[in-house]
Amino acid sequence: MSASVVPQSSRSGLLDKKFKSLGLEYDFDFVLHLPLRYEDETAIHKISQIYPGQSVQLEGVVTHSEVVFKPRKQLLATFKDDTGQISLRWIHFYPSQQKMLEKGGLVRIRGEVRGSSMWGFELIHPKMSKAGEALPKTLTPVYPTTEGLAQPSIRKAVLEALSRTVLADTLPEAIQQKYLLPNFAQSIQALHHPAVGTDPDELTQKLHPAWLRIKFDELLAQQLALAAARAARQQKKSFPMQIQPGELAAGLLKGLEFSLTAAQQKVIAEINHDLQREYPMHRLLQGDVGSGKTIVAGMAAATVLENGFQVAIMAPTEILAEQHFIKMKKWFEPLGIEVAWLSGSLRTKAKQEATNAIASGQAQLIIGTQALIQKNINFHRLGLMIVDEQHRFGVGQRLSLSRKGEHLLQNQYMVPHQLNMSATPIPRSLAMTFLADLEVSVIDELPPGRTPVVTKLFSDNRRDELLEHVRQEVKNGRQVYWVCPLVEESEALQLQTAVDTHARLQEELDDVRSGLLHGRLNTQEKANVMAAFVQHELDLLVATTVIEVGVDVPNASLMIIEHAERFGLAQLHQLRGRVGRGQVNSVCVLLYQQPLSKVASQRLKAMYETTDGFEIARRDLEQRGPGEFLGVRQSGLALLRFADIEADYQIVEQAREAAKELRENYPEAVEKHLHRWMRGKEDYIRT
């Protein structure tokens, strides 16, 4: 029998299903199913010495019990030891518990003390067991669980897995000594069964040395996996691009109405350097809203197109993809490049024509949504894939587009270069931890002429004042966005909807030309509304978050976000970035409803205090966690179970350093460590 697999015969099928729902299948899954907290059942307390908030274990007798119906049905009892007495109360109870109390005799009870010495102490829903049984010699673990799975069942399964598993250390002694790491097996045992006297705060806050070892091992495995992904990518082949003479790129630059910033030029040079190599580029281009990422992507596309290859640009929403299509068509069609559009909402005939043009190579620059990764889409010769707002796609979706472009040449698969773009700046700690397998370029400079956006917080009771502000902006020849979180009324969230808001604003601002834009309009309707706003045929655009990214209207100077407390930080920052794109002073109003939750208050405060995208991202990371940034949550893969990339920043640094040393000097240890920690995460490693 393999030591890594739990024997199925030892458990019922129903129990197995419960365990699998928690991700527990193999012995090592149980070994790493670490407790949330602990109960101290190693001692018997005396009633005379207990205090409120204390978790206690008492032995004594029940002197009285009864079921009462005031104010509702509950079971009450009086419990006594040789030093005093305490009340017991069950609001929900079973007949078996009632019978146990009526039997009399010695019993053992456990629970948290409530009440006061003046009015008397009580235990609510205490646990009962037989008195006189041997006391455990370690703290009792309380594990994460699911409905119908009791703690004794988990404890038994974990104990069995520990007895079968050889917890050999994967790390050489020299590495353990260098980073002052405790032994792995001892750390695991210490976390499942902490010795009496272990500091409970150190355990629950994950500061105990045993926790530090587990977090180090997890982060080390991640760094090793990302290094392996980078090495594997460098073993793949891609078409090296010739950068000179660059006539297409020169033609593109000549047709622009602006000059590139120094930051854009630096990033273009980094991308060109990658495109010349014989293995696929895998670069992340990030920059704050309005920093000019699109023209950088256009320059990369120009280089690849000039080399005779196709370029595909995939965006997460139809509006964003369409904005790219309009812009790229304007830039490239005068240069003789055929630009194609592909989305799920295209009519059958148009979709087939686009599909044929992509397969034949007639379409050179292809822009679309995730329709680009459908089974029937085949590229003729894809040289570069550009994924915009990459964190919005799951790992699997990004991988699918890459595999679409694989090209067999002399028994060798050629893989397209890949450029990921994100307008959500990624904090350095997150980039170091999760993006160590790719190169990162940052546009850290805004184009000249952009004005800082002033952010104002307005309570909902100041709507009339806000309406007057809208009238004034329109009178001055400016345009306004009014963003709402929902399209139709929701019973769960009583929010002002885009449809209702538009109708109401038409009445209140009858002299203002307004339009409505939301995700349920068809493609042509969206395009017509957006075009009318761009051409200033509309003064006010009421919209849902479909305008979050990619929309560029320099004349828009006022952004109003209805129910701002309901939006995430990154989303608020992206929406704010829709204004301030011209030379006129711009304002973003965060319209909120009282009462505000603590988290919502923190979000609005962060927006008011800073316009720095990286600081916004750092605060957003604290609130949401890393999965949202990276698009890994959609793939169903957990990122980190034990470590916290902000709190454990020093361990991240040590793990990066140790990973490098292991790869250079201890290849066998690398293999053992990855085998232990990265089972089931192969797709993530490959990306």
Automatic annotation (TrEMBL):
Residues 462-622 form the Helicase C-terminal domain. Transmembrane segments: none annotated. Its EC number is 5.6.2.4. Keywords: ATP-binding, Coiled coil, DNA damage, DNA recombination, DNA repair, DNA-binding, Helicase, Hydrolase, Isomerase, Nucleotide-binding. It catalyses: ATP + H2O = ADP + phosphate + H(+); Couples ATP hydrolysis with the unwinding of duplex DNA by translocating in the 3'-5' direction. InterPro entries: ATP-dep_DNA_helicase_RecG (IPR004609), DEAD/DEAH_box_helicase_dom (IPR011545), Helicase_ATP-bd (IPR014001), Helicase_C-like (IPR001650), NA-bd_OB-fold (IPR012340), P-loop_NTPase (IPR027417), RecG/Mfd (IPR047112), RecG_dom3_C (IPR045562). Pfam families: DEAD, Helicase_C, RecG_dom3_C, RecG_wedge. GO terms for molecular function: helicase activity. Residues 274-443 form the Helicase ATP-binding domain. SUPFAM superfamilies: Nucleic acid-binding proteins, P-loop containing nucleoside triphosphate hydrolases. Residues 645-672 form a coiled coil. Plays a critical role in recombination and DNA repair. Helps process Holliday junction intermediates to mature products by catalyzing branch migration. Has replication fork regression activity, unwinds stalled or blocked replication forks to make a HJ that can be resolved. Has a DNA unwinding activity characteristic of a DNA helicase with 3'-5' polarity. Belongs to the helicase family. RecG subfamily. This is ATP-dependent DNA helicase RecG. It comes from Advenella mandrilli. The lineage of its organism: Bacteria, Pseudomonadati, Pseudomonadota, Betaproteobacteria, Burkholderiales.
